[in-house]
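WARN no homologs supplied; continuing
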Amino acid sequence: MEFRTPVAIVEPSFSIEPLEEMLFVGSCFADNIGQRFLDEHFRATVNPYGTMYNPVSVFHTIAQWLDEKDRFVADGPASNRLVVFITLGTNHVYRLKSTGEIVDNCQKRPQSLFTEEELSIDECADSLRQSVGLLQDRLASLNHPRTLQVIFTVSPIRYAKYGFHESQLSKATLLLAVNRVVKELSNADYFPAYEIVLDELRDYRFYKDDMLHPSPQAVEYIWQQLVAHYFSPAARRFLDEWKPIKAALAHRPFHPESAEYQAFLADARQKEQELLMRYSARL
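OK structure emitted
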């Protein structure tokens, strides 16, 4: 007898390889998943200018990051691909009355200076297309052109301040916009984090105390699903080999100054460097 409703995950059009270069932009859910990739030695950049919740702010982040990191992207370590996770939280935006500009952060300025608006499906989709197009153009212009793979997700975090019905409408707008863009682009996939939390993990034990944000256990489950469906065999082997070294480095002894522990730590660090060098040669 089945006591849950597993979410079917469409097999992706590509596989994530060990130590890949990645960019995570979006809501605090992007922070959580991006940190997991950092912990596993992927070359990940996670929300370089803070969390961004709507498609326009995501576009602003990508544009700024590309401008500031132009030399890094062009002259950095050899890599054939950039993998980008875009995690959307809401279609609500704040527009500064004096300029008409959609801002990414109100910076604690008075609410009277802004108008709150809701982006339409078309407006969300247009911003997502602009983000992908900007990334593609920049990567294609390098001396050693690189390909792009985008994974869209919608954050499962609900916005209680909207009211739960309005929150669902906001998520629906994002889901429809993402679905439209993914159907248009051959290098874009959708990972159903939203559906996994709401349908498969349909229990408040998978939420933090605020009953809105996914718990560490829920984030871990979503990570496991990403590994199972998106990681290449080589990436999964890397995780298996890295796991005991990672545990050794995380060990906190009673006497960290002892010669025995220092030798143990040096051995773990040596194994870490050997592992990274071996898999870096595959890039």
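DSSP finds nine helices and eight strands in the chain.
OK
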